[in-house]
Amino acid sequence: MSVQLPPTTEPAPGPVPPGADGGRPAKARTSRLRLTVRRFARNRLALFGLCLLVLLFLGAYGGPLLTKWDYQQHDFMNFLSSPSGDHWWGTTQGGVDLFALTMRGLQKSLIIGLLVGVISTFLAATVGAFAAYFGGWTDRVLMWIVDLLLVMPSFLIIAVLSPAFRGSTWLIFVVLLGAFSWMVTGRVVRSMTFTLKDREFVKAAKYMGVPAPVIIFRHILPSMASMLIIDTVIQVGAAVIGESSLSYFGFGVQAPDVSLGTVIADNTTNASTYPWLFFFPAGCLVLIGVSISFIGDGLRDALDPNAAGAKARSSRKGKRPRREGPKRERTVAAVPAQATTAAADGQGAAQ
Amino acid sequence: MGRYLLRRLANYLVLVVVAASLTYFLAGLSLNPRAKFEGRNPPLPEASITKTLDDYNMNPDTPILSRFGHWADGVVHGDLGKTIEGDDVNDDFGRRVGVSTRLLLIAALIGSLGGVALGAFGAIRQYRLFDRFTTLASFFVLAMPVFVIGVALKIGATALNDGSQTIKVLGEYDPQYAGQWNLDALVNRAQHMLLPALTLIILQVALYSRYQRSTMLDVLGSDFLRTARAKGLRKGKALVKHGLRTAILPVVPLLVYNIVLLFTGATFTEKTFGWHGMGELLVDSINKQDVNSVATVGLFTAVLVLIAGLLSDLLYAALDPRVRVR
């Protein structure tokens, strides 16, 4: 795809012509954003994930309007009825319409996931960048806190603190989840800041007298924006899993509120005999996770042309995949979510 | 190397002490053991509740610092205190560690071997059918919370059983086999073991194979592998001896951390399948407002992190000659 040509020649979707490497440095005309969008759109799995997520959002907020049942309403004629025209996804033991209930839970799970993703990435970026920029004791103290938080069993801590937010707002729960999921990313940001710190544009700003927080937020963090964006997406997925896991045991979202975790937990006793009570909400949960993984993967390839994945993908049609791409630095960024997810069962780490 | 390890050890030890103390403070301040006794019918007299709580060192009215001092003194002398039922935490702890070990040993072994093998093979067959399938499958597995995998397996097993009791879904063994180790008892244990072990294995294979695949891909294009082939090594041998051995290095810390932390991390698996291990204690102790048990879990987890950290440092040094030189 030659970038010199007028924009009428958008790259044809479908089979990518050999040699059309999305990773070439962008020429002046093509903005970074458009390039990213184009590369992202070329990745079918990522596009599929995005559509799926949009559908889930639409379903979560539009779905309740389509059905006549409310998630708090009990249908006393139908207890544990199977999916039918009246109750699309059947009813629970209390006669609540499962579709309405699941959509309500989906809303909360999505919101919590998004909030936690943003909070934890923000925390990670701030702490990591400040630690590396100031170095010395600031660095030592902050990294010690990171180590400490990694040693403390986050699932246990959030669960122990759960009485504190029982009866008050679920936003406290969100803050707690965020507070325990930023550490690994924080370390990555720190090591990236170390290398950025000595670059000319940072030094120039420093000697011009720009205050440190401004340098960090305006010069350093934007330079690693792609990593932060990818991390946010991955954290969202991890947060959804963490939230549902904690809620499953009653340590997360509390009674008047519902999330997918509580919906599954409430119906788990009947799951063997009335499997749809389990499969519909659990299916929604898995779909969130899958769509976010696909989006994260696509974003990584689109934002980071040097990643081995992006190159190999574009040469997918070729007989032999190229493998000599530079070391996939971003794997580190991709890892924490899954790793923390896996740290316990691995789920407990609240993710 | 030795000094480096010692410094790490000292740092870890401080972290463990601080983390365990913090957990105790949080649990002591946040949980309310009195509630456990107040709901009784017939109601217990106030004075006797207070007396019991004092005996167990759980009275919320005692200043937290003096409770902590009492607890810490006990821990230093190897006494973890009393559970809220009045038993020794030590006994409960020992029993549960045994249960967790029996479950985790096999699961961790198969899980890590399977994950490494699957990931490495997927990398060699990059973008072929096998690789596509395993990649997609691991995406799905990693998008699932553990309890979803567990309950799904349970539902599947119930359908497969079709009324019979071939695959057991609850507990570690049937009560009549308690304490026995003959053939019947072993078969019974295996029937119980199948599902929880499978849950853990699926999860670990999915996770490790992702990492192993990406590290293996990095190695596959390397010069030393080409050299190994050029000097006449057969493909399989070159891939395993030169490729896999290098590619497994970055995965080792992950493996160690995950396997060691499974002791308290298998919470969901143990809860779902009714195994009375350490993971279950994590949830149950909080539900029972059992301060001393919660503190024990916190301490145990912190110690596990320490062990995992040291173990992965040691293993890394053993496997990677470059570290030893430094």
From TrEMBL, chain A:
Gene3D superfamilies (UniProt xref):
MetI-like
Q: What SUPFAM superfamilies does the entry give?
A: MetI-like
Pfam short name (any one): OppC_N
**Keywords assigned:** Cell inner membrane, Cell membrane, Membrane, Peptide transport, Protein transport, Transmembrane, Transmembrane helix, Transport
From start to end residue, where is composition biased (Basic residues)? 313-322
Location relative to the cell: Cell inner membrane; Cell membrane
Name the PANTHER family for this protein. OLIGOPEPTIDE TRANSPORT SYSTEM PERMEASE PROTEIN APPC, OLIGOPEPTIDE TRANSPORT SYSTEM PERMEASE PROTEIN OPPC
Its protein name is Oligopeptide transport system permease protein OppC
Look up and give the organism this protein is from: Streptomyces piniterrae
UniProtKB/TrEMBL annotation, chain B:
Q: What is the protein's membrane topology class?
A: Multi-pass membrane protein
Q: Which UniProt keywords apply?
A: Cell membrane, Membrane, Transmembrane, Transmembrane helix, Transport
Q: Which residues form the ABC transmembrane type-1 domain?
A: 97-312
**Protein's cellular compartments:** Cell membrane
Record-linked CDD domains: TM_PBP2
Matching entries from PROSITE patterns are given as: ABC_TM1 (PS50928)
**Superkingdom in the source lineage:** Bacteria
Any one GO CC term of this protein is: plasma membrane
Q: What is its main location?
A: membrane
Whether Membrane counts among this entry's keywords is: yes
Enumerate the transmembrane spans: 12-31, 103-124, 136-157, 190-208, 247-268, 297-319
Does the entry feature the keyword Glycoprotein, yes or no? no
InterPro entries assigned to the protein according to its UniProt record, in alphabetical order: MetI-like (IPR000515), MetI-like_sf (IPR035906)
> What GO terms describe the biological role, i.e. biological process, of this protein?
transmembrane transport
Q: Which PANTHER family match?
A: INNER MEMBRANE ABC TRANSPORTER, OLIGOPEPTIDE TRANSPORT SYSTEM PERMEASE PROTEIN APPB
Would you identify the family this protein belongs to, as annotated?
A: Belongs to the binding-protein-dependent transport system permease family.
Q: What protein name applies here?
A: ABC transporter permease
Recorded source organism is: Streptomyces piniterrae
